[in-house]
Design goal:
The protein is α+β, with helices and mostly antiparallel strands and about 500 residues long. The protein folds into three domains: about 200 residues, Muramoyl-pentapeptide Carboxypeptidase, domain 2; about 90 residues, Orthogonal Bundle (Muramoyl-pentapeptide Carboxypeptidase, domain 1), CATH 1.10.101.10; about 70 residues, PGBD-like superfamily/PGBD (Muramoyl-pentapeptide Carboxypeptidase, domain 1, Orthogonal Bundle), CATH 1.10.101. Helices cover about 35% and strands about 5% of the residues. The chain contains 16 helices and seven strands. The longest helix has 16 residues. The radius of gyration is 31 Å and the shape is elongated. The N terminus and C terminus are likely disordered. It binds zinc ion. The site of zinc ion (ZN) has 5 residues, from β5.
């Protein structure tokens, strides 16, 4: 087998690779002879190598990845704060539309349906009467909107459709004609404060369309609606009695009267950080809140879709850099607090250093790595004179920096291994040479995909760490994407890297 050009394993292997002394790793007699997540073998006393198949490795890794991407705090589905409301209003100018966190389909009823119908109407679709009842006309309007927005036309108003409704261009308040209110027809009734019902809803919706603020379109003619009617009457040159009779209806139909001052944008409410921790893999309303906030502050999360993907993670890290925080991409109390402070939290301006400039990152090169016994080209970078898969190296350096701030010095004892190095370790182990530790079959160690790092967790027991380095890692490594495998306290794997190579 061709061996790549990396330097051969230095001897003595045990020390140079940083594995613990043999005394440290004496396994419990009953240890199972299966692979741990990293492809190493838990029980060095066992010579039966048959379980060393990739299949025996994969499930535990899968489990790790699933667990690692979830939201801690668990409140991702709770309703959001007022922040997106403010943003919506600011970004669209005219519209104060904020999508509710609910799914609507034909047959649904209630205030959210009213909201949907109003929004469709604002956007020039005809949902039928604004009556809070999701019937065939509303269904048709939803489908028409979905078609126009490139969404699947299922008539179901879920997160994607709401998001598109939110983003859709709102009519400009200064437009000379009534903004997209094709269905509006004045009913033949007189309304005044105290009235309620469908006609009041129609009135409120129309006032809103024209830039007046009747409060919520709840079908109840209260003081806010009365105030909006009076403002409208004033703008239309009518007597300001607050009573909606034929003249006022006619003016509403015509729709040319506009508020004298631009519709007052709601005073930007203070951004209120939710009390949850978010990281890549999270989803829901809080992620949307986060994405909106990042966007407002000039950090592009790649879309406001409620999904915390790599784009959002990058925006978070860039924001953290700008705010002088550790760039772990995890939105916890400190990051939320900085997001709350907004522009005033930003200390570093300009372009965040690209990943290529992570301090401590050495030259990168392409080399042959192995995953599940199969060779593939991987990019490795030099870090502390060792090699590691490049994203792993960057994540490690971010982690190292954070550890240093806490007075803990991290060091890599063993990183990427060439086939030759892994073969050497494996042969030493199966031949029971003194000083050799359990090693995975060549081609199957995650040191060969470059995502596994053996760190300087000396001085701790085999399965349970007690040292300063271990304790720090146990508490913090997950924030940087690192997870250790059971049994081996020194062996940490970068999960996003793992996922990438699977
Ligand atoms: Zn290891």
């Amino acid at each position: 087998m061709k061996v790549n050009s990396n330097p051969p394993t230095p001897r003595p292997v045990n020390r140079k690779l940083g594995a613990p002394t043999p005394a440290n790793i004496t396994p419990p007699a009953a240890a199972p002879s299966t692979f741990a997540a990293d492809g190493q073998i838990n029980n060095p006393a066992t010579t039966n190598l048959s379980p060393q198949t990739p299949a025996s490795i994969a499930p535990s890794i899968q489990r790790d990845l699933t667990g690692g991407g979830q939201v801690t705090g668990g409140l991702a589905q709770t309703p959001t704060t007022g922040a997106p409301r403010a943003r919506s209003a600011a970004s669209t100018g005219a519209s104060r539309f904020t999508a509710p966190n609910t799914v609507l389909r034909s047959g649904a009823k209630g205030a959210n349906v009213t909201k949907l119908q109003q929004r469709l109407k604002e956007l020039g679709y005809d949902p039928g009467p604004i009556d809070g009842s999701f019937g065939p006309k509303t269904d048709a309007a939803v489908k028409a909107f979905q078609r126009k927005s490139g969404l699947s036309q299922d008539g179901v108003v879920g997160p994607k459709t709401w998001s598109a409704l939110e983003k859709a261009g709102a009519p400009a308040p200064a437009a000379p004609a009534a903004p997209a209110a094709p269905g509006f027809k004045a009913p033949n009734v007189t309304l005044k404060q105290g009235a309620s019902g469908q006609h009041v809803k129609t009135l409120q919706s129309r006032l809103k369309d024209l830039g007046f603020n009747p409060g919520s379109a709840d079908g109840s003619f209260g003081p806010k609606t009365s105030g909006a009617v009076k403002s409208f009457q004033k703008a239309a040159g009518l007597g300001q009695d607050g009573v909606v009779g034929p003249k006022t209806w006619k003016a509403l139909e015509k729709g040319s009267a506009r508020p004298s001052a631009p519709a007052p944008a709601p005073a930007a409410p203070k951004f209120n950080a939710p009390n949850v921790t978010l990281k890549q893999g999270a989803s829901g309303q809080h992620v949307k809140t986060l994405q909106n906030r990042l966007k407002d502050l000039g950090f592009n999360p790649g879309g406001v879709d409620g999904k915390f993907g790599p784009g959002t993670a990058k925006a978070v890290r860039n924001f953290q850099w700008a705010a002088g925080l550790g760039q772990d991409g995890v939105v916890g109390p400190k990051t939320w607090s900085a997001l709350e402070k907004g522009k005033s939290a930003i200390k570093n301006h300009g372009t965040p250093p690209s990943n290529a400039n992570v301090p401590g990152l050495g030259a990168t090169q392409n080399t042959t790595g192995y995953v599940n016994g199969r060779a593939r080209n991987i990019q490795v970078a030099k870090v502390e004179g060792k090699l590691a898969e490049v994203d792993t190296a960057k994540a490690y350096l971010r982690m190292k920096q954070a550890a240093a701030r806490d007075g803990v010095h991290l060091q890599i004892n063993s990183g990427f291994r060439t086939m030759e190095q892994q073969r050497y370790l494996y042969n030493g182990w199966i031949n029971r040479k003194p000083g050799f530790n359990p090693a995975a079959k060549p081609g199957y160690s995650n040191h060969q995909s470059g995502v596994a790092l053996d760190l300087n967790t000396q001085g701790v027991s085999r399965s349970q760490g007690t040292g300063k380095v271990y304790n720090w890692l146990a508490k913090n490594a997950h924030k940087y994407g690192f997870k250790r495998i059971p049994i081996e306290h020194w062996h940490w794997e970068y999960q996003p890297g793992l996922a990438k190579y699977r």
